[in-house]
Amino acid sequence: DNAVKQASSSGQTVVITIVVYDLPDRDCAALASNGELTVANNGLATYKSQYIDAIAATINQAKYSKLRISAIIEPDSLPNLVTNLNLAKCAEANSSGAYVQGVQYALSKLHAISNIYNYVDIGHYGWLGWPSNFQPAATLISNTIKGATGGASSVDGFISNTANYTATNELYMTANQSVSGNPVRSATFYQWNTYIDQATFDASWKAAMIANGLPSTIGMLNDTSRNGWGGSGRPTGASTSTD
To answer: Measured between alpha carbons, how far is 105 from 109 in angstroms, rounded to an integer?
Structure first.
């Protein structure tokens, strides 16, 4: 309602962001998972009828039709199905289909509303950057999207680094730059990751999604709120260290 007032007084289009974040067995790899719904207790049905349907019904009111609503879809969910199936809750979320079916339902319901723009969470480079993670994640997530009612068009893009800490742009070195005869990505901090910042990871992800059949118009969002580049310790140039 406040956004409607702002749009009315300013004469400009207003974009608001909502985070859709309540899958059953949510945060399945977290040390202290705080999801309210569980797979075992009919969580997927509850997620659909009492959460997604309620969001869609609220937004799909005439008074909100001129707003643009950016929906961040289920942070950390699908990436957990790539890397954390050794954990019981993640294995349950996978075997039950709760994460995939829940995301597909959310995309289907929200995409049907013309002023909602869906952005699916893709973790961050420090999670999915290695080829052994990147390729399975690209396949899982693109297939999940294509299984929604709107198919490949049910998303407007992807969001990375949601509530995480990776650098948006590494300004002073590249992953394959040699330092004392070794590439930067071989450093203990990077553990041979293909990427050392979000910008290059996001560009590769977009290319992979288009190659997997998604529209070339998809956009990329990146959370910069905790990207580690603030404060007095921010580098002002390349290091001269050979360590």
So the answer is: 6
- Distance separating alpha carbons of residues 147 and 63, to the nearest angstrom: 31
As separate numbers, helices (DSSP H) first and strands (DSSP E) second, the chain gives: 9, 7
Q: At which residue do the structure tokens 């001129």 appear? A: 66
The answer to whether residues 38 and 46 touch, using CB atoms and an 8 Å cutoff, is no
- pLDDT tens figures, 218-237: 999 999 998 877 778 778 89
Give the CA radius of gyration of the chain.
20
Q: Where are the alpha helices (DSSP H) in the chain?
A: 2-10, 43-46, 53-59, 77-83, 88-95, 98-111, 125-128, 131-146, 198-211
Report pTM: 0.94
Low-confidence stretches of the chain (pLDDT beneath 50):
none
DSSP string covering 153-171: GG-SEEEESTT----S---
Contact 168, 220 (CB under 8 A): no
